[in-house]
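4.2 Preliminary Data

To establish feasibility before requesting continued support, the project team ran the inverse folding procedure on a target of 80 residues. The structure was first converted into the token representation described in Section 3, and no sequence information of any kind was made available to the design step. The complete token record follows.
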């Protein structure tokens, strides 16, 4: 089973990062208001990037690294 690090663009222009093992279902949960508290208040517009990982541990580490970056470097993280 693969895990994914993903980056959403929200309706307020902000980015939201998370991990999941089912990207389509997780995005649908965010859109319907059943995802994270942040995306309930700021619904996502689209998935702007995603990257697969072999396991949850790897995806969690990548999520922490991504969240520590300034906004202008977040998309570049997915090219590495």
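Position-by-position output of the design step:
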């Amino acid at each position: 089973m693969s895990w994914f690090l993903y980056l959403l663009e929200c309706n307020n222009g902000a980015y939201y990062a998370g991990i999941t093992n089912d990207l389509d279902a997780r995005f649908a949960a965010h859109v319907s208001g059943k995802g994270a508290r942040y995306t309930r208040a700021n619904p996502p517009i689209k998935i702007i990037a995603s990257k697969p990982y072999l396991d949850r541990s790897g995806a969690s580490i990548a999520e922490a690294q991504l969240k520590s970056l300034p906004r202008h470097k977040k998309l570049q993280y997915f090219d590495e």
